[in-house]
Design goal:
By secondary structure, this protein is an alpha/beta fold. About 40% of the residues lie in helices and about 15% in strands. Helix 1 packs across helix 7 and helix 7 crosses helix 8. It is elongated, with a radius of gyration of 26 Å. The mean pLDDT is about 95.
Length: about 400
Amino acid sequence: MAPATPSSALSSLRILDLTRVRAGPTCCRVFADFGADVIKIEAPDGVDPNETMSGARDGYDMLNLHRNKRSLTLNLKRAEGLEVFLKLVESADVVVENYRPDVKTRLGIDYPALKARNPRIILASISGFGQDGPYAGRAGFDQIAQGMGGLMWVTGLPGQGPVRAGVAVADSTAGLYAATGILVALRERDVSGEGQWVQTSLLQAQIALCDFQAARYLVDGTVPPQAGNDHPYSTPMGVVETADGFINLAVGGDGQWRDLCRAIQRSDLAAHPDYATQPQRLAHREAVWALLTPIFAADTSANWLARLEEVGVPAGPIYRMDEVFEDPQVRHLNVAQSVAHPRLGAVTLVGQPIGLSRTPPAMVAPLSDKGADCDAILAEIGIDAGRIATLRSEGII
């Protein structure tokens, strides 16, 4: 397969990626896909007992999270390794880390230490619960943040108990918020000439992601309940069973309700005093669904989707993951993209969901073998071949 052309959008940036698992790698992947020189810094073999937390290096998760990055092994627990890292900081733009808050201070790579070597450096820290406060020292994982951020009590069917989301929403969102913060700090640096410390956490990201449900409590004092597949206040908006499966139905206003009544050949319901307006339908939600359930069960998903589209009522299929990537619109959007891997051949991964007209993201390289780029990266900062050999023999790289 022909290699893709790298994006030039962020090609002037160098990012030092100290992260692992998901939130931090998600952040750095944004920069890598838009052309930044992202250097994934990893411990040499035998130094980090938790290095396999994201699975096998050639596994789907590592390949998807770490494409487009170069790999440098470096033992930051040794003085020589720390000095090499700080030398890298001198010519870097951003350092991203997701250690527990105290770890970077113990290693000597906290923001004051980095700023002393490069006043323009931006440090982005992603933690479980924040850089300080009563929970700062706790290990943070996605599901814990989902629970503490309120998501698990608004997810799931009423009465079934807390339910986690099926994807790592706190991790992924924290990574994207960190990327946003970095971009803000980079733009501000253009004005001030100085870097700064960007901070976010899984807990903050999860609460922010709850958005209108969180605001519902803060503004109105209402604790949102589990609503299952129903929208909190729009009806009928949710999952309906058909003769051969399920579809999502989304009636967002009174005009769409009248269109739905036409599609199901029940125009008599359009002006019914219990259903004519959104507040009335919400008050009689169970009755609305009781009317619709046998009607939709009488025909197939494909037929219903066609009829609803014809009258302009929002609806959509509910796909399993294999079906997602067979959808013609998903194919048109080029969400799945391939990159050539030296051992696995063409590997298909999830592309960036962002398009730019002149400098779009690009997937140009798979995850490098561990430490594959050591010599090239160290030579770029003026370390000669003899010194590199010594660092390797001493287990620093």
